[in-house]
Amino acid sequence: MIARRSPDEIEAIRAACQIVSRVHGALAERIAPGVSTAILDELAEETIRSHGADPAFKGYHGFPASICASVNDEAVHGFPRPDPLQEGDVLCVDVGVRLNGWFGDGAFTLAVGELAADVEGLLRATQQALDAGVRAAVADKHLSDISHAVETIANEAGVTVIQEYGGHGIGRELHEEPHIPNHGAPGRGPRLQVGQVIAIEPIFSLGAPEVVVDEDGWTTRTKDGSAAAHFEHTVAITKEGPRMLTEPRTATIAAAG
Ligand code: MG
Q1: Is residue 2 in a domain?
Q2: Is residue 1 part of a domain?
Q3: 174, 178, 177, 151: which is closest to 162 by C-alpha?
Q4: How many domains does the chain have?
């Protein structure tokens, strides 16, 4: 059962998502060699709370921070740390916000200084896969059309889908039905309907698809140590087509309604 939201409810989710975008914009301006992900986490929490919202990840099943900050071979769910980012690092930042009982979720990956060409290609492919997934989020298409669109970009770019993770429904909870795999044949699963709100989030690596979880129970890294990238938007399926609720990244907050 995939929830369908009214236009007013979608605006309420969008209001949470616009704070996610604002945090992304603030962090993107700050990310540089020498800056720690712990500082970025503090900045994210301040920004979220300054808008009267709560960081959705903090305390979520015991997660200790307001952002997931995953560096280099860390694919998802990395803990912010006090040690400084280095030139050539690749940083995935995932941000969740709860506002008035509604959730928004979005992630991006950024180069810290100059990246190696293959890592730059990985980032580009992951971003393009997100865009392709969003374009497939159209009423009457099947859920797995999104999965297939994402996987097709990975295959074309010669990068690897980390299959353990995927997108999800979102709204009253951070994670709702359905799970949205980032791989698979098209034309499967339920048909998408106007009013559904989903988070689409390709997670790709340069190497093998296997991941391992650290002893902290969260930090998920590629088993072969290759770099990973992760982009995510919260998207509403509307009569007019997919609407990215977490765009644009550097926007000031737009009024809801
Ligand atoms: Mg998510």
Answers
A1: no
A2: no
A3: 151
A4: 1
Q: pTM (2 decimals)?
A: 0.95
Ligand 1 center–CA 165 separation, angstroms:
9
- Judge whether 170 lies within some domain: yes
Identify the CATH number of the domain in which residue 103 sits: 3.90.230.10
Distance from the alpha carbon of residue 233 to the mean position of ligand 1, in angstroms = 8
* Side-chain-facing half-sphere of 175: CA atoms under 13 Å: 9
198 CA distance to ligand 1 centroid (A)? 9
Q: What is the pLDDT of residue 251?
A: 39
Of 115, 96, 112, nearest in space to 44 by CA = 96
Task: Tell me, yes or no, whether 221 lies in a domain.
Answer: yes
Give the range of the structural domain holding residue 229, as residue numbers without chain letter. Answer: 7-252
Say how many Å lie between the CA of residue 33 and the centre of ligand 1. 27
Distance 44 CA to ligand 1 centre (A): 17
Which protein residues have a CB closer than 5 Å to ligand 1 (ion)? Answer: 105, 199
Task: Walk along the chain (257 residues) in steps of 10 and give the mean pLDDT of each run.
Answer: 95 98 95 97 98 97 96 95 96 97 97 92 97 98 98 98 97 97 97 98 96 94 96 97 86 39
- Which residues touch 11 (CB under 8 Å, ≥6 apart)? 256, 257
